[in-house]
Amino acid sequence: MGQSKRRIAKLLILLVVLVIISLTGLGCVSGLQPIGWSGGTVSGDTFFVGSKEGRLVAINVIDEGRQWSEAIKAPAQGGGFGCLPTAGAGCGTGSAGVAIYGTPVVADGLVYIGGYNGKVYAYNSVSLEVRWVYPREDYLEPIVGGLVAAGGKVCFGSSDGMVYALDAANGEKQWEFATGDKVWSTPSVDGSVLFVGSFDGKLYALNMADGSLKWEFTTEGSVAAAPLVDGDTVYIGSFDRHLYALDAATGAMKWKFMGENWFWARPAVYGNTVYAGCLDGKVYALNAANGGKLAEFDLGSPVSSSPVLSDGAIIFAAREGGIYRLNVSSNELGLLADIGEEVYGPISGHNGIVYIHTQDLSLNRVNANTGAVLMPISLAIKD
Amino acid sequence: MNPWELIIQQPVINILIVMSHYLADNFGLAIIALTIIVNVIILPLTLKQMRASKAMQELQPKIAELQKKYAKDKQKLAQEQMLLYKESGMSPAGCVLPMLVQMPVWIAVYQSVMLSLAVAPEGLLNLSRYLYPWPVVYSMLPLANDFLWLNLAKPDVFLAILVGATMWLQQKMATPMSADPRQAAQSRMMLWMMPLMFTLLAMSFPSGLALFWVTSSIARIVMQYYVSGWGGLAPMFARESSAGDRKYTRLISQSEDRSQDDVGADIVVSGEETAKGDRGSGYLPKPSSTRYQPGRDRARRRRKK
């Protein structure tokens, strides 16, 4: 009988090992867990960023002192050892907090941030105490895009397909607008108009005052990119592999340019040239007037990170960690540094330093002129 | 991209997306269709494995007899077992090899389904690198996750239970109860452990994956029925239909009692009563093939040679 029990125990162990190997080991695929790719923003001497532990982190850029908010809480949901798309733990992420994708926004002494748990938080920019939360009860669908604050309102899109405008001071809802699919695009504001893309393939221009539709433009793919408004033109990238230039007043198309993969990142404009990073691993320099290709630069891996302007140059980050400096006057591209970590989210710049939030709970820093890599700042609360 | 991604994952993902497009933009239907297609492609391997397993099970009484006979001589037992396998024209590897070949295929389908679901934003971003330069592929993404009552990106309890139930059914069909109490205990454990584990997993994973498991199990149930009839389920059906047929019930219970009491003894089923069975009679073998008489079977085969 004892031998029989041993055989059964062996069989049981073999079974468990087999299932674990086939599902967790061989079968585990990346990208199942929301981890977050929040960019950073600087206000005064403080750099704000959403950490992969689900906290708003404030870093003093002078003495590198750090301050953390309370961790954002996930909605209570079941689940055991699988890969639930709610918070962030599992499948080798090493993270246990709510994922934060949007870059924090600072306005009037408050810092605003949206979480993958479907809530928007307003913190006191000095003490990091919560001022208000929207919605107070319950949760919206995951918030992936960033927020924009303008005219006393905070606007954002949600995976429930809605665009919301809240009172920036108290978080009361001012209006909402329904699109046809998820909204992962970070909205942009130009005067009294809010521009936002949706997975229904459209770019919407909404009146900031009441959320009414001004115009809409339909592309042939989903829109996850943030629109860029420059003068009377709005630029938007789509999953149909095109970058569009539209008339900001009417939504009429001026031109479109085709890449070899999705345009996910917000482009940048310098002078009469549009610089657009594409998931095909290239940065395209386009004539802003007619969309003609002036040059293309191969960065070797997808560009999903929005660039920053710095002293006559535009800094791009490629997925594999290469930080590139594109000289806009000579149209020459040079590798500034290789930080060796994956970069998904937008990079930011302040006082000649480029800040790159990587997938390893650290904030990397590179000198935008010399390429010198500075000591990374850990965003982990225990460090 | 590594060779596995380039040769296996990328084509499967693009096929899934294109299928989704042609199946009314329905990713759920695409998962079902792909699972069926893959099952059809590997059908020869699956049938080979099922037949080998069935043949192995049919040899169990003879093996049990040998184990009893050569309990104290392990070397002789091994020799006799090998001889038995040789004479019956099969090898234990015949069950395992086709299964090993199938495993990478199923892992590829599993991974492709999970990648295509693009549950998290990182997943969608990552998916872009697998896409072929076909306009239909780029414009389809992200795929719509709604199918019937399901959000394919989120777990579903009902579907998880269905995963366990279909897996149990398939395993039950594949493993008739052994006469050896130890083997019977192992079979019982296998019968419950795998379905339970997969049910728990399905409760945590996106239901798109559970849909793949359920479809796969149903496909295997159909194939198992083709190979061995109702197999281990036959007695259950027999009991259910026995309200007005006590004679049939007696036959089942007698044969079960006998097989538990007397390992390796003759199992004799009359042709008249066997004829009452349906395809499920695979569990109650035909008289000509089930009249096993120790020693005589092997001698007869030798004479034929």
Q: Which structural traits does this protein have?
A:
heterodimer, A: 383 residues, Lipocalin, B: 305 residues, mainly alpha, two-stranded antiparallel ribbon, 15 helices, disordered C terminus
Word description of this protein:
The complex is a heterodimer of chains A (383) and B (305). With 383 residues, chain A is mainly beta. Chain A has one helix spanning 2-25, and strands at residues 40-43, 46-50, 56-60, 66-68, 105-107, 110-114, 120-124, 130-134, 148-150, 153-157, 162-167, 173-178, 188-190, 193-197, 202-207, 213-218, 228-230, 233-237, 242-247, 253-258, 268-270, 273-277, 282-287, 293-298, 308-310, 313-317, 322-327, 332-338, 348-350, 353-357, 362-367, 373-378. Chain A is built from 1 helix and 32 strands. In chain A, a hairpin with a 2-residue loop joins strand 25 (308-310) and strand 26. The longest helix of chain A is centred in the first third of the chain and has 24 residues, at 2-25. Chain B starts with a helix and ends with a helix. Chain B folds into 2 domains: 3-228, no CATH class; 236-299, no CATH class. Chain B is 71% helix and 1% strand. In chain B, helix 1 packs across helix 5 (93-117) and helix 3 (43-69) packs across helix 4 (74-87). By secondary structure, chain B is mainly alpha-helical. A two-stranded antiparallel ribbon of chain B has the order 1-2. In chain B, 36% of the residues are buried. At the A-B interface, helix 1 of A face helix 5, helix 6, helix 7 and helix 9 of B.
